[in-house]
């Protein structure tokens, strides 16, 4: 399944792009939150950690060794947990005011899930001894 490797790589690029798209709009504060811009909130910049994890995913996907594929599983598990954490943290309602979810948030979750699937099916051929 060599095609899954390329699907995972495309998903990691899509993850990086999704961090620049709007994730939520907080209407009562008139704030647009993305992965790299959250001025006016206490969210920080959660997209930067996604950048680091996507870099290591791309690096380990291009290395054709078993240890790299195992490290990749660890990387994408952390990335998926971080994506779920971002979704829960950013979409939480405060005082009855719920933010409007935008496409970047869903794109981040989908890209993280595809990266996880790509790491589970690496397509590496083992040598018999």
Secondary-structure topology with pairs:
Blueprint: H1 2-18, E1 22-26, E2 31-34, H2 47-62, H3 66-90, E3 100-101, H4 103-120
Antiparallel strand pairs: 1-2, 1-3
Helix pairs in contact: 1-2, 1-4, 2-3, 3-4
In words, what does this structure look like?
- With 129 residues, the chain is mainly α.
- 59% of the residues lie in helices and 9% in strands.
- The protein contains 4 helices and 3 strands; from the N terminus they run αββααβα.
- It has a 3-stranded antiparallel sheet.
- α1 packs antiparallel against α2, α2 runs antiparallel to α3 and α3 packs antiparallel against α4.
- It is elongated, with a radius of gyration of 17 Å.
Key phrases:
single chain, 129 residues, mainly alpha, 3-stranded antiparallel sheet, 4 helices, elongated
Count of distinct strands: 3
Rg is 17 Å
- Helix and strand sequence: HEEHHEH
Biggest sheet architecture: 3 strands, antiparallel
Compact overview of the structure:
The chain is mainly alpha-helical and 129 residues long. It is 59% helix and 9% strand. A hairpin with a 4-residue loop joins strand 1 (22-26) and strand 2.
